Amino acid sequence: MAKDKYTAIWISHTSISDYLKCPRAYFLKNVYKDSSTGHKIQIMTPALALGQAVHEVIESLSSIPTSSRMEESLVLKFDKVWENFTSEKGGFRDSEEEHKFKERGKAMLRRVMDNPGPIARLAVKIQQDLPHYWISEDENIVLCGKVDWLEYDQDLDSVHIIDFKTGKKREDEDSLQLPIYHLLVHHCQKRPVVKASYWYLEENDNLTEKILPDLKEAHTRVIEIGRRIKLARKLEKMECPEGRDGCIHCQSMEKILKGEGKLVSANSQRDVYILPFEEAETEEIDSIIL
């Protein structure tokens, strides 16, 4: 089959995680579009608002020259970004809850200003809005995703993958996040990857270095799941494994389809909803669907 980005199956760490948790959740978050708007749907929660705002501030720094990167207060940058997440737009039930999450974000960014570490050093910027490559041209499958930060080592002409964590939950050891990031960085720029780390911004001043995943093993794991997703989409077999009542991963999205959510914002691609507060997910999520 000739490769075609418009008919290809695009997979990412987030979409793969959705599929492994519940194929129905994967469908509702990554395939389904509202017939009246033509947009995908997303549920906003306070944890997601916090993660998106902090990531937006830090990621914007990679395009600023190192010498002037830290000249403007990150907290002031955060205040401007936060305007997009105030009140219901961030899924907050009241001003007290919003204040609590906003202060958490400011504390993380003060930590970065006090201990900039790799942020104050040279960085590599991949020249794609959404980094991606054909993980299988013959099968028409594209792997994509945004990597938070690539620190550049001038002596070795190499890069260090860094992922910022704004939630309280530690990434599982068997997570596919770093394997996927290693594949993406390897294929989307020319320098070798020599290191990978997480930065748990709410707890640590320094990075938590991880074992760099093997590229061959990473490719094998990711393409196998990509094939499963492609087959499920072709056969339209994306049911919840727990049956019609659904599971914790798809129930909230089903509520949106039933009209139980409230539309709080929209862009050219997604309609963003919130659920009644007593029904909203409480899981800390700090990533955006790609």
In short:
The protein has 290 residues and is of the alpha/beta class. The chain is built from 8 helices and 10 strands.
Largest sheet: 4 strands, mixed
What's the arrangement of strands in the largest beta sheet? 5-6-7-8
Derived from helix and strand composition plus strand pairing, the structural class reads alpha/beta
Order of helices and strands: EHHEHHHEEEEHEEHHEE
Helices and strands in order, then pairings?
Blueprint: E1 9-11, H1 13-21, H2 23-30, E2 40-43, H3 46-59, H4 74-82, H5 95-114, E3 132-136, E4 141-144, E5 149-153, E6 158-165, H6 177-188, E7 193-200, E8 208-210, H7 215-235, H8 251-257, E9 262-266, E10 270-274
Parallel strand pairs: 1-4, 2-10, 6-7
Antiparallel strand pairs: 3-4, 5-6, 7-8, 9-10
Helix pairs in contact: 1-2, 3-4, 3-5, 4-5, 6-7
Describe this structure in words.
The protein is α/β, with parallel strands linked by helices. Among the domains are: 45-120, no CATH class; 121-133 and 144-221, no CATH class. Helix content is 34%, strand content 17%. It has helices at 13-21, 23-30, 46-59, 74-82, 95-114, 177-188, 215-235, 251-257; strands spanning 9-11, 40-43, 132-136, 141-144, 149-153, 158-165, 193-200, 208-210, 262-266, 270-274. The strands form 3 sheets. Strands 5-6-7-8 form a 4-stranded mixed beta sheet. It has a 3-stranded mixed beta sheet with strand order 1-4-3. α6 links the parallel β6 and β7. α3 crosses α4 (74-82), α4 (74-82) packs antiparallel against α5 and α6 (177-188) packs across α7 (215-235). The radius of gyration is 19 Å and the shape is globular.
